[in-house]
Amino acid sequence: MPTKAANLLTLREMLAAARRVGCAVGSFAPRYTPVIAPVLRAGQRTDSPLIVQISQNEFGWYQVSADEFAAAFFDELERQAITVPVTLHLDHTRDFGVIQQAIAAGFTSVMIDASDRPLDENIAITRQVVEYAHAHGVSVEAELGRIGKASDENIETDDDTELFTDPREARRFVDETGVDALAVSIGTVHGVYKVKQPRIDFDRLRAIRAETPVPLVLHGGSGVPPDAIQRAIHLPGGGVTKINIATDLENALLAALGREQRMLNPECKALPPEQLGPALDAVEQTVTEKIVHFLHSHGYAKEFAR
Ligand code: 13P
Q: Is residue 85 in contact with ligand 1, taking CB distance under 6 Å?
């Protein structure tokens, strides 16, 4: 792992700066190592801070390791001479071992997701990760409530609110775990919205915000209308500060390649440059659109200086 560059921030540093200047930061999931390059390029060209993330499931789905992903990220930072603030974040992860591997590889932030466990267990597991990560200078995001998938049968019911984050529990969770950021379930889900459209519960977001001091994270950013995102960011009293976006990037890549199905990372790396190049450009355009029309984080890079 290279020595820490001045523009490589922990999630805590990144989100504290975002709150100070009043914007949110996109957490983009390239999924394939060649896709890290256009994500970083979009941030540099728009003068925007950004977060690059990959999850435990994605390591398995795409056959890429924490070491390989981190190495590709650090190579790209150097190759493109990236100067905008960046964070390397491990998204949804259940296993402590994977968290340890990511921290050893140079990730500056990790997410422990024990949200399927009862509250007390979620607190105990999260607290253990916080102790370990903080001892290594790394930030922690955790989840309370259940953020489903658009493809999930049980999230496509009228009872979604059962899965939503409870504001009173949020206060206890943050107090007892010491997390740096909290992922909340307030009406968005992961993946493409096919049946239901996202309906953000702004009253709940306001109540969670009032109960918790830490930055809040909105997952499932793909397919959410820009006005709903803007309202979630700029809610009076403060809204969400990190927004995760994955599916829209992969869809841009696959559409440009004329593919229906996702690939494995080795297949993506083996694509001929004349095919891969335009597809990476399509991802850069999508990330740029998110930054400029959805997050409005462009032009803020300098204000994030430590
Ligand atoms: P989308 O795939 O819906 O953008 O969700 C991304 C996400 O929240 C990953 O944690």
A: no
